[in-house]
C-alpha cells in the first residue's frame, strides 16, 4: 500500500449555505492613473481569466487629446474578434500609475486593446499580471493586497462593484450573425465552440469528455483547414433552463493550440459528446 503524505484540512475564512458559495464574490480592482500620475483615477479590474488587457473605447476617447495614446492597427489586431455589438478597433501602448501601500507611485507599461461597448474602463488581463509577476493575498472581507515584481511592491486592492462588461459572449468567425437561443440549444447537444461564416457547420469537439464536478479540462476542437487566424473568446457562463452550467474563461483559439478550457462548476459530472465524424466544412 502506498504511503500517502499527511492530509491538511484547509480552513475557510468564509462560509455560505450550499449552492450559495459564489454569492457576493467579485473580481479584484485597483485604483490606477492612466498615461500620467496626475490624471483622474479609475478602477482597473484585474481579470486572470482574460488573456489580454482591454480598455473601453469610451474611456480611451475621454482621455485629453494632447496625451491620448495613439490608436494602432494592422495585422496584430486582426487576431482578435469580439461578437455582438462589441468590437476591437485597435490597440495602444501606454502607462498606468498605481499608489503602493507605502505611499510610493509605481509605473507599469501596458498594451491594451480598445473595445467598443465595454462598460469597464480598464481590464488588466493575464498578459499584464504575468509580465509583472502579480500575486495576491486575499481576505474574506474583500480587502486584499496585490504584490507586483515578485512580491516587492504591495498594492491595496478591493473587490469590484457588481457590473456587466457589456460584451456578450459568443464564439464566431468574422461576419457571422449573433447566435440566437435556438442555435445555442443545438450547440449544447453537439458542443460547437466556433461557427463558420454564413454556414451552420460548427467546429466540433474531437473526442468525448467527462468533466468532474469542480474541474476544468482543455477540450480539443476541430478547426477548418483554411483557418490561419486566432480568435478572442470572451469569458462565458452558459446554461440552458437552469441546467448543466458550462463555464469558459477568456482565451485565444489558434490553429497551433485548438483547445478551449471548459469548467464544470456543478455538483455532478458533465459529459461533452464528440462531434459527428461525418461533418465536413464547405
Report on the architecture of this protein.
By secondary structure, the chain is mainly β. It has two domains: 132 residues, Cathepsin D, subunit A, domain 1; 92 residues, no CATH class. Helix content is 7%, strand content 34%. It is built from three helices and 19 strands. A six-stranded mixed barrel has the order 1-2-6-3-5-4. The longest helix has 9 residues. The C terminus is likely disordered. This is Peptidase A2 domain-containing protein.
Which keywords apply here?
six-stranded mixed β-barrel, single chain, Peptidase A2 domain-containing protein, Cathepsin D, subunit A, domain 1, two-stranded antiparallel sheet, 282 residues, disordered C terminus, Peptidase_aspartic_dom_sf, mainly beta, 2 domains, globular
Amino acid at each position: 500500500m502506498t504511503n500517502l503524505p499527511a492530509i491538511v484540512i484547509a480552513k475557510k475564512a468564509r462560509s455560505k449555505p450550499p449552492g450559495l458559495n459564489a454569492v457576493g464574490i467579485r473580481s479584484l480592482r485597483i485604483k490606477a492613473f492612466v498615461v500620467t500620475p496626475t490624471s483622474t483615477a479609475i478602477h482597473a479590474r484585474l481579470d486572470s481569466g482574460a488573456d489580454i488587457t482591454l480598455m473601453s473605447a469610451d474611456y480611451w476617447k475621454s482621455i485629453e487629446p494632447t496625451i491620448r495614446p495613439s490608436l494602432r492597427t494592422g495585422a496584430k489586431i486582426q487576431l482578435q474578434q469580439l461578437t455582438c455589438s462589441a468590437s476591437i478597433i485597435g490597440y495602444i501602448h501606454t502607462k498606468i500609475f498605481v499608489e503602493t501601500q507605502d505611499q510610493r507611485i509605481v509605473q507599469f507599461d501596458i498594451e491594451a486593446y480598445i473595445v467598443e461597448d465595454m462598460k469597464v474602463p480598464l481590464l488588466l488581463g493575464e498578459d499584464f499580471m504575468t509580465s509583472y509577476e502579480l500575486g495576491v493575498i486575499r481576505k474574506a472581507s474583500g480587502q486584499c493586497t496585490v504584490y507586483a515584481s515578485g512580491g516587492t511592491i504591495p498594492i491595496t486592492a478591493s473587490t469590484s462593484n457588481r457590473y456587466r462588461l457589456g460584451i456578450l459572449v459568443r464564439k464566431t468567425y468574422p461576419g457571422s450573425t449573433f447566435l440566437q437561443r435556438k442555435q445555442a440549444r443545438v450547440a449544447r447537444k453537439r458542443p460547437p465552440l466556433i461557427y463558420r461564416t454564413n454556414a451552420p457547420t460548427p467546429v466540433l469537439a474531437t473526442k468525448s469528455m467527462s468533466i468532474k464536478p469542480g474541474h476544468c479540462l482543455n477540450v480539443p476542437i476541430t478547426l477548418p483547414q483554411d483557418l490561419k487566424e486566432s480568435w478572442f473568446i470572451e469569458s462565458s457562463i452558459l446554461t440552458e433552463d437552469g441546467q448543466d452550467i458550462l463555464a469558459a474563461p477568456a482565451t485565444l483559439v489558434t490553429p497551433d493550440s485548438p483547445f478551449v478550457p471548459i469548467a464544470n462548476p456543478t455538483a455532478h459530472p458533465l459529459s461533452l459528446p464528440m462531434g459527428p465524424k461525418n461533418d465536413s466544412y464547405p
